[in-house]
Amino acid sequence: MTSFLAVERAVRTAAPHALLDTARAALVEHYEATSVDLLMADYSLTVLQPVTALPHTAQPLPVHASPEGRAFGSQEAYGQDVAEDGAMDLHLPVTVRGDRLGILTVRLSRPRCTPETIEELTEIAELLGHEIIVAERDTDLYLQARRASRLTLAAEMQWQLLPGRACSRQEYAVGAQLEPAYAIHGDNFDWATTAETLTLTVTNGMGEGIEASLLTNLAVNALRNARRAGIGIADQAALADQAIYGRYRGAAYVSTLLLSFELATGRAQVVDAGSPQLWRQRDKTVERVPFEAQLPLGMFDETAYVAQEFRVLPGDRLIFVSDGVYAAATRAGEAYGERALARAVQAASLLPAAAVPRAVLRELASTRDAGVDTADDALVVCLDWFGRDEG
Questions:
Q1: Is 344 helix (H, G, I), strand (E, B) or coil?
Q2: Which residues form the PPM-type phosphatase domain (predicted)?
């Protein structure tokens, strides 16, 4: 534990750009590590990018066909023997409250790889993740390391607007993903939690490129501004509607699904203001959950919104999708459709919430002709509901 505390102190006091170098030096000194590497998951969640000095030239590793990817997918430490010197590489998840950032790989001699050491290094990897989130306020190093290619300006704006790609606590786990990851423009998701509630929004701004991103930025920030004023979701929708209409006068609007959950009971209020859809997997049944459709935000002046009641039960999985998923054209020229989406959700039943969106989007991509660009953003959000044990 003395070694752990020494590494923890070093990482917490490191300069933002020097987190890896500081952690590496401390792990060499206190755990006799012979190498330490940090890999960040890229925006598409397909590769793990090594953090190196700019420009980043180290070879990325595939998420689905590498030992590092195995640890990333399982979210458990994975040991890999290094034959040439009898050492072991420990691949450790770098994760913050369910948001999977990457992998920390530490090479130790086999005698040093005790269960106690592995447990301590797993905690150090989690600590490093928290420090990376804080450091991103002051350095671009870790954001740059996530890029397998250049982001469009619209995508840059959208990713900076997001709360993360996953979040978990006792009552629920959320995972989300956007595609095309490097050229997203109008789709967005957002969430916020308190001691007693979870607010979740799924947004689809009309248009393309920078104009769609600007529209969605206005909508999301208007909703956040209203939410942070402490008002209900119906009034949040109304105030965001006024902000968007005031700027675009009905020429542009935003489709949004807003939900507010009571963590203690599973009761929720819902405002369905447009195209995002909700699907529910309960036991072995996957079905769409329809709501009363209301006008998209900003379509008309001073639209009144009404919240509907909804109930989620422990064990439920909720899947939120944009029209870029359920209306996507397949090779046959048909819409992706309800049955295909239900099959994709069923196929991902055993995956954790953080991994489900990528799995559904991968299944969607497999129905398209290879090399064909998507015509629309595709968004998937997964919410696993565990409920609260009041006992």
A1: helix
A2: 169-385
Q: What is the pLDDT, as a whole number, of residue 331?
A: 60
Q: Which two structure tokens, joined as six digits, stand for 143? A: 């954001």
Query: Going by C-beta distance under 8 Å and a sequence separation of 6 or more, which residues neighbour residue 344?
Result: 359, 360, 363, 364
Helical packing angle, 356-366 and 338-347, nearest 10°: 130
Contacts of 251 (CB under 8 A, 6+ apart): none
- Binning pLDDT at 50, 70 and 90, where does residue 390 land? low
User: 89: Cβ–Cβ under 8 A, 6 or more apart, which residues?
Assistant: 67, 79, 80, 82, 105, 106, 107
Q: What is the pLDDT of residues 353-378, one digit of tens each?
A: 999 999 999 988 887 654 445 557 99
> Which helix or strand (DSSP H or E) is residue 15 part of?
none
Return d(Cα 387, Cα 130) in angstroms, integer.
26
Maximal CA-CA distance, the chain: 71
Distance CA 66, CA 60 (A): 11
Q: Is the peptide bond before 180 cis (omega within 30 degrees of 0)?
A: yes
Spatial separation of the C-alpha atoms in residues 114 and 122, rounded to whole Å: 12
CB-based contact 271:202 (threshold 8 Å)? no
Q: Cα–Cα distances in Å, from 318 out to 95, 275, 299, 386?
A: 23, 16, 28, 12
Q: Which residue has the tokens 């066909």?
A: 65
- Residues for the chain: how many in total? 391
Residues 6+ apart with CB under 8 A from 277: 257, 288, 320, 321, 323, 326
Instruction: Determine the distance from the C-alpha atom of residue 22 to the mean position of all C-alpha atoms in its chain, rounded to a whole number.
Output: 28
**Token pair recorded at residue 38:** 């940090």
Paired strand residues for 265: none
pTM: 0.94
Q: Which amino acid is at 287?
A: E
Of 373, 286, 360, the residue nearest 325 (C-alpha): 360
Nearest to 265 by CA among 390, 174, 173, 383: 390
Q: How many whole angstroms separate alpha carbon 23 and alpha carbon 181?
A: 30
Q: How far is CA 164 from CA 177, 233, 280, in A?
A: 10, 21, 23
